[in-house]
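Re: the request from the purification team.
They wanted to know what the chain is likely to look like in 3D before they choose a buffer screen. I agreed to run a prediction and write the result into the notebook, where they can find it.
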Amino acid sequence: MYDTVSVAGLNAILWTLTAVAILLSVGRFAIRYATAGRFYWDDASHMLSILLLIGLAAAYTAGFPYSARIARISSKQEAPPPPTDPFYHNYLQLRLVVTLLVFMVLWSVKATFLIFYRLLFDVSETFIRMWWAAVAFTFATFW
């Protein structure tokens, strides 16, 4: 992949799509405020999702040069650094951060939908029981 798209190109794609997500979210917040006159808990969860997404994009931006270097090493274009080189440690730390942020973004979006559904369908006792079961399952499977 790094032989066809540069790190700068990947960064441009990543931040363009992140900006689109932010703009769509701003539109969502504007519509919510215009129609309801206030914000709800699902909006707070959605804001958390956006903040986590920005953190994820930043972590990917920091990790692209490491991934490009690994691609060069695996294709024998560059000699691997010695095992004591901090490159490996930094790369593994970034991979851990990216993995954690991916799951946090996904689950915060799930929480947003769950909260939104609770606001929409707070009329049936059966639905509330099913909703709590879905919440319990969602949070039990987080890790």
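For the purification team: The mean pLDDT is 90.
Please add any questions underneath this entry.
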